[in-house]
Write a structure and sequence with these properties.
The protein has one domain. Helix content is 14%, strand content 30%. It has one helix and three strands. β1 (8-15) and β2 (18-20) form a beta hairpin. The radius of gyration is 12 Å and the shape is globular.
Length: 57
Amino acid sequence: DIDFPEGVLIGGVLKGQELVKPIGETRIEEGDVIALFALSKDIPEVERLLQVSIDFF
């Protein structure tokens, strides 16, 4: 689970060739492309949340 700030909205998830309107149970998986809408003040936090640490590899 990713705890996005209040000013962030996931507008859509592209899963292969299928565009999915996200609901509470939508899972974001490797290879998915997401469209995020965010207030400018929330962008640094979104970037931090989506970073992959060196421990991931």
